[in-house]
Design a protein that fits this description.
Blueprint lengths: L11 H10 L33 H4 L1 E2 L6 H10 L12 E3 L2 E3 L3 E6 L7 H14 L3 E3 L3 H5 L14 H11 L7 E5 L1 H5 L2 H7 L4 H5 L3 E6 L11 E5 L3 H4 L4 E3 L8 E5 L7 H14 L4 E6 L5 H10 L4 E5 L10 H6 L4 H7 L7 E4 L5 H9 L4 E4 L1 H9 L4 H19 L13 E2 L17
Parallel strand pairs: 4-5, 4-14, 5-6, 6-7, 7-11, 11-12, 12-13, 13-14
Antiparallel strand pairs: 1-15, 2-3, 8-10, 9-10
Helix pairs in contact: 1-16, 1-17, 4-6, 4-16, 11-12, 15-17, 16-17
Length: about 425
């Protein structure tokens, strides 16, 4: 194993293998061909040893015997269709992606170091995959357009520049996330007016994502650890706590989670559409018990996409209690939501084609790569993400075609067993206090 990042409880070794071997990693090791017999359980499970699979992993994809969709494809092509005929191109929150994938938000935490974040930006740009740039970069590092900032590789401006340098025409795009502290720093105004982002704006490939919450720590804002000597300067924008002891060398920096009600969320989206009419509007929700109401409010208010993090979502830093005990699992979030024609994006422990296909069958339009993308780039800063995506593309084409379908949007509940039923939303409509 190479690289410096670690991801306990996540199939790190499997992801690093994909980042090294690419599409070949979707199959058993080649040296075993002709000398080994394979069946269920013949290969190591992707979950960590002794770890029970979650509800999404426990579902099985179940192809039918009779496939009218395959017949339609046969007639259209004039030949028997193959898995290579699956078209993975997907509209992701108003942006075009060559696969039903996007790169989840990476913000100002230590794991998103300049080298890693910029390498990830370059690879995502080259692949034409939409990428979310997370919160608190400008309050922490600045935008990067002022004199003297050109030598700081950790600014928001540099991440956008690195992505754009590799981006082909017609695909991809960047979603810039904004939290409460980002709003105070006028991040969206800076991005919207910056000449460096004009290629994205002119081609309709710029999105702004309103962060309502995230999967790893629902109800909390972003958290990072800083050297104690930076506490005073940071305290102007963030809450700073000596969580590691009064004499410790480091302090805990906490961003505000923000305050939302149905009306506040509605008005925020309307403000975004009014102030930034050329940008796509995304809303990121935590896995809360009223996720259905929040998502419907966002869509009805004009959001181009709603992103839902499951409780399995990763983070650079989060309290232990939140990682293990807070938030709905992604499968439950998906079962509570009914996106219809609206764009639902989902993230939480995405690392292989099977899990992605199951999320798509439960209503997601695309899935986000978070820890998997980090690990792939950590394994190989030049080609790791590209190889990971190659392996996912092969698996998705094989799985979708095996179900007698030829586009990700055709996946549905019927493709899963046990056949899941939509969960009733147990949370009554909340009466807002006037």
């Amino acid at each position: 194993m190479t690289g410096t990042l670690r991801a306990a409880g996540f199939p790190e070794d499997a992801v690093r293998t994909r980042a090294r071997e690419g599409a070949a990693s979707a199959f058993p090791p080649l040296p075993g061909y002709g000398a080994a017999l394979y069946g269920a359980g013949a290969l190591p499970a992707p979950a960590s040893a002794g770890e029970a699979p979650d509800a999404l992993d426990a579902l099985r994809l179940v192809p039918p015997v009779l496939m009218p969709g395959r017949l339609e494809k046969l007639i259209d092509l004039g030949r028997e269709p193959h898995h290579t005929d699956v078209d993975l191109t997907t509209r992701v929150g108003g942006l075009t992606s060559p696969l039903p994938l996007y790169v989840s938000a990476l913000g100002s935490t230590q794991v998103a170091s300049a080298d890693l974040a910029n390498a990830l930006s370059r690879q995502a740009g080259r692949l034409g995959i939409p990428m979310v740039i997370g919160e608190n970069i400008v309050p922490s590092r600045g935008f990067g357009r002022l004199p003297g900032a050109e030598h700081d590789d950790r600014t928001l401006h540099v991440r956008i520049r690195e992505y754009l340098a590799e981006l082909p025409d017609g695909v991809g795009g960047i979603a810039v996330q904004q939290s409460t502290e980002d709003a105070d720093a006028e991040v969206w105004n800076l991005v919207y007016s910056d000449p460096g982002t004009r290629p994205l704006l002119d081609s309709g490939r710029l999105a702004f994502e309103l962060k309502v919450g995230q999967g790893a720590k629902p109800g909390l804002g972003g958290m990072t650890v800083l050297p104690a000597e930076l506490a005073a300067a940071t305290a102007e924008r963030f809450a700073v706590e000596p969580a590691f002891g009064p004499d410790a060398d480091h302090v805990l920096r906490c961003a505000s989670p923000g305050t939302f009600t149905t009306e506040i969320l509605r008005q925020q989206i309307r403000m975004m559409r009014n102030n930034y009419p050329r940008a796509r509007i995304w809303v990121k929700l935590p896995p809360g018990r009223d996720v259905r109401e929040a998502a419907r409010t966002a869509w009805d208010s004009g959001a181009d996409a709603v992103t839902v993090d499951g409780a399995e979502g990763g983070s650079g830093w989060a309290p232990r209690a939140f990682l293990d005990h807070v938030g709905l699992p992604l499968s439950e979030c998906l079962l509570r939501l009914a996106p219809g024609d609206d764009c639902l994006l989902a993230s939480g422990r995405m690392h292989d084609g099977a899990r992605a296909a199951k999320a798509l069958a439960l209503g997601a339009r695309a899935v986000g790569l978070g820890r998997a993308a980090f690990l792939a780039v950590d394994e190989d800063p030049q080609e790791g993400l590209a190889r990971l995506v190659d392996s996912l593309a092969v698996e998705l084409r094989l799985l979708i075609s095996a179900l007698g379908k030829y586009a990700p949007a055709e996946l549905d509940h019927e493709d899963l067993w046990p056949l899941p039923a939509r969960s009733p939303d147990p949370a009554p409509l909340v009466k807002e206090r006037g």
